[in-house]
Every structure is written in structure tokens, then in C-alpha cells.
Amino acid sequence: MPSSQRVARAEAAFTIYAGLGQDRSLEAVRATQTMLGQTPLGMSTLKAYSVDFEWQTRAAAFDRQVRAAHEASDDQVNQVVAMNRRQAQAGEIAQTLAVQGLAQYRNQPDLLRDQGVNALGGLMERGAKLERLARGAATERPEVMTTVLSHIINGIASAFERVNGMPDPDQRAALFATEADRIVDAEIRKITPAD
Predict the structure, then answer these.
(1) pTM score, two decimals?
(2) 68 within a domain of the structure (yes/no)
(3) What is the pLDDT of residues 28-43, one digit of tens each?
């Protein structure tokens, strides 16, 4: 049975050997030991360790584990990318539904009163947050986006209250649409970099 000191030295050298990957060799182990400030083991000692402790077999097993870990990591990355893509699309859909809901006001003014500006605004806000999170942008300017969305929602709610008392539904719808567009455009300009 090998001494514990011999086993420890062999394992330390094997760690270097395995870590060298495709460029591994006993000479490379010695060079790495020197680079690390260690006294390099003799070539005959390294050859004996390699045979006695089955370095070739163990290195092949190590390489398989590394490949499997990389494949699993690649699979996880692909799953996260696919999830983010799905969530970004869901956020876009939520925003589109909110905008379509606001657009329905032109044809059915009572619909917005029943549905509520706040409900549609909330859907738009949640959709935007979901999309930004999925696209990795949520940590960049969340306060700005929250403020902008809040201004849009409050502005559209105020515009709705202003035009709601108008007797002519066509005039009311046209004015509301114009006001809503103006509010959204003004807020988007605040956060869009100038060309």
C-alpha cells in the first residue's frame, strides 16, 4: 500500500496533469509545477505515478466529465435563451393587447369605461416589465421605465376623464386617440436616444 505522502504528491501532480487537457504530458506537469513555484517532480517519479495511479484512464474519465458538464451547460444556456425568448414574446403580446384595447375605444367608447383604463394600462406595464426582464434590460433602467409607464398610464387615464363627458362619440374617440398618441410619443421621446 502506498504511503499517504506518496498518494498526496501523486494526486497533486495528477490534478495538474488532468487540468492540462489536450496538451497534457508529464513534461507539461513539470513545467506547471515550476511555474507554480513548486519543485518539479522527477520524470521517473511522474512516470511511476502515472502507471501506479492509472493517470491515462483517470484522465480519460476526467475529459468525459468535462465534456458532459459543457454539454449540460450548453443545454441550460439554450433553455434559458428559449425561455427568455418566450417571455419577451409574451410581454410583447401583453403590450399589443393593451394597445388594441385602447384602440377599441375608437369603435366602442363604452368598452373602455367597462374595461377600465387602469386595467389596460396595468396590462401594458406588466407586459413591458416582462419583456424587459426577458431581454435582460430590466436592471439597466427599471426606475426610468416604471416612471415612464406610470406617466403614460396616468396621462391616458386623465385624457379619458377629460373627453368622457363629450356628447359626440366620434369626436370623443378622435380626441382621446390623439391625446393618447401624444402622451405615449412624449414619454417615449424622453427615453429614446437622439440619432
Answers:
(1) 0.41
(2) no
(3) 999 988 888 889 999 9
